[in-house]
């Protein structure tokens, strides 16, 4: 409801509300976008919604959504969602991008834009959230309910110390000044409160956001993809922290995630959203082992999907790295102190053979990205030598003949394309390394090879979905037939069904063209599907180099074992299927 209007009097039945109160801060990117209509209808009138009705003997829920609908600028994005969350319970809200997960959370928090209209009822701790004054809603937010967002760097103020940002919560709610050290200790963060966000790692920043959220010990915590951008060990630590906090404080946790392996170890119940509709809600074990709705079955199957990678036909050494080290200037602690260099990559040596699919894994900050840029000739190295089929890779003397033989597929397909140009021009970009325009039909063939239409050549990049953009990125990388492809977190930003499709596409292209690639990822389950051999990096060094199945079955290095143990896994009885390897062609 509009902030300028007084609260409505109590009524026996809720009616459609006007524009809901807007919270501070930037609006999420999906406002104004359209979620496709369709999907499963909610059934006949009077039918029980997937979220269930509250029986007379049930304990009183902390949070109740009763046929909640949200529309923005006339477009209905959330359709009659009914859910309940008990005190101390963890409920996972899952579904693909655009399904309405984050929109549901923002509706609960009162952070929708002014253009939004809602119908249905939102009840929190016996309070009808749509009927209370905006000021009271603001006081509930932070004190009684709080939210942890996916990207901590954008959730934090870069101009304020982390201590000042935690203290701000107490000031807004007129509470006594907190013991900042104790709060940081509670979330496992051993850094002084005088640090700024940019001085912390991604995992540390997420701990700060959690510290702010739980500072006043709220009854409800909403976590929106809190570990999606984190490596497996940091993810495990954050998930463990959330479990401990909910247990210690008796907090209810509404966890939004598309990762069913995370859901399996965190939530008592799962609610599945599709196109803004709740299609299934049941106990976690029940949903994973015997999903009822066709869409849920697709999600579960895609989560356990295994790409049919063809048997490798490995040839001679194609890319060779010998004793490669990369160093950066260190931080100067005092004005007159000489800074010590920081070594990001230390003495790395390995060979990549023609036709081989090599994985590169490790935690954030281990040196993966620096090593990758060095292999591409984009980063000067302190020592060592890199050759591609015998030709030196030298960042000081770029050689287009070398550059055309190695191409990259980046994590963010939208950010790697110029939105001003049409697809035909974007796919033709690698041809400048050859000094001529693409031959007739090259663009059409490249699009067809990744499952797109030649008609797509006339469209702009914003007209495509995330999965389609990644197909275009793969098409651009392959169009000049490079000898090595570097896939840098190429599927980590994709939903599970789209990820499965892209992995299948890579397997098909590998069989068709005998591709050689380096696959960089923090998702070990994906690395296992699409590689023959894996390098494990820790603190700038290669600590293990082994065939993929050997490494996963019998890891030798303690760090590798720690990575594998930290990775979330689906239960053995999950309703998934699919072989890992295709039979030899």
Automatic annotation (TrEMBL):
Query: Which BP terms does GO give this entry?
Result: peptide transport; transmembrane transport
Q: Does this entry carry the keyword Nucleotide-binding?
A: yes
UniProt keyword annotation of Transport present:
yes
Q: Where is the ABC transporter domain?
A: 63-300, 319-564
- Superkingdom field: Bacteria
CDD domains recorded: ABC_NikE_OppD_transporters
> Which keywords, in A-to-Z order, does the entry hold?
ATP-binding, Nucleotide-binding, Transport
Where, per UniProt, does this protein localize? Answer: Cell inner membrane
Family according to the record: Belongs to the ABC transporter superfamily.
Return the protein name: ABC transporter ATP-binding protein
Query: Which source organism?
Result: Sagittula salina
């Amino acid at each position: 409801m509009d902030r300028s209007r007084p609260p409505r009097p109590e009524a026996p039945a809720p009616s459609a509300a006007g524009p809901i109160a807007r919270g501070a801060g930037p609006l999420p990117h999906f406002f104004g976008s359209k979620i496709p209509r369709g999907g499963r209808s909610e059934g006949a009138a009077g039918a029980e919604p997937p979220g269930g009705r509250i029986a007379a003997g049930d304990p009183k829920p902390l949070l109740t959504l009763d046929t909640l609908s949200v529309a923005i600028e006339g477009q209905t994005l959330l359709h009659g969602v009914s859910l309940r969350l008990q005190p101390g319970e963890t409920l996972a809200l899952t579904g693909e991008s655009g399904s309405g997960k984050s929109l549901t959370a923002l509706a609960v928090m009162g952070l929708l834009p002014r253009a939004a209209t809602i119908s249905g009822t939102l009840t929190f701790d016996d309070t009808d959230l749509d009927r209370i004054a905006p000021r009271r809603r603001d006081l509930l937010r932070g004190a009684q309910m709080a939210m942890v967002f996916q990207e901590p760097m954008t959730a934090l103020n870069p101009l304020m110390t982390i201590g000042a940002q935690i203290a701000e919560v107490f000031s807004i709610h007129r509470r006594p000044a907190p013991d900042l050290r104790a709060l940081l200790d509670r979330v496992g963060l051993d850094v002084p409160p005088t640090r700024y966000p940019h001085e912390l790692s991604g995992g540390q920043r997420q701990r700060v956001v959690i510290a702010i959220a739980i500072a006043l010990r709220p009854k409800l915590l909403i976590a929106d993809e809190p570990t999606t951008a984190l490596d497996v060990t940091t993810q495990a630590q954050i998930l463990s922290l959330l479990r401990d906090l909910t247990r210690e404080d008796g907090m209810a946790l509404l966890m939004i995630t598309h990762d069913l392996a995370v859901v399996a170890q965190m939530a008592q119940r799962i609610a599945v959203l599709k196109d803004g509709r709740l299609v299934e809600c049941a106990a976690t074990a029940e949903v994973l082992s015997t999903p009822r709705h066709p869409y849920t079955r697709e999600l579960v199957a895609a989560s356990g999907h295994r790409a049919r990678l063809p048997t490798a036909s490995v040839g001679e050494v194609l890319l060779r790295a010998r004793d490669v080290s990369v160093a950066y200037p260190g931080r100067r602690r005092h004005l007159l102190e000489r800074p010590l260099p920081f070594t990001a990559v230390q003495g790395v040596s390995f060979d990549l053979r023609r036709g081989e699919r090599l994985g590169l894994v490790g935690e954030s900050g281990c040196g993966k990205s620096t090593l990758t840029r060095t292999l591409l000739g984009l980063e000067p190295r302190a020592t060592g030598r890199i050759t591609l089929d015998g030709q030196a890779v030298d960042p000081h003397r770029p050689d287009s003949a070398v550059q055309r033989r190695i191409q990259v597929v980046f994590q963010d397909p939208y950010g790697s394309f110029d939105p001003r140009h049409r697809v035909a021009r974007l796919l033709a970009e690698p041809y400048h390394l050859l000094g001529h325009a693409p031959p007739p039909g090259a663009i059409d063939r490249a699009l067809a090879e990744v499952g797109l239409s030649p008609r797509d050549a006339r469209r702009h990049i914003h007209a495509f979905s995330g999965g389609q953009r990644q197909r275009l990125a793969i098409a651009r990388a392959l169009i000049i037939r490079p000898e090595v492809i570097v896939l840098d977190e190429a599927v980590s930003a994709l939903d599970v069904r789209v990820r499965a499709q892209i992995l299948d596409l890579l397997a098909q292209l590998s069989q068709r063209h005998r591709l050689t690639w380096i696959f960089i990822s923090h998702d070990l389950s994906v690395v296992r599907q699409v590689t023959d051999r894996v390098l494990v990096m820790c603190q700038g060094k290669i600590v293990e180099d082994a065939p993929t199945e050997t490494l996963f079955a019998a890891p030798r290095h303690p760090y590798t074992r720690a990575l594998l143990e930290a990775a979330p896994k689906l239960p053995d009885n999950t309703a998934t299927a699919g072989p890992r390897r295709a039979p030899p062609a």
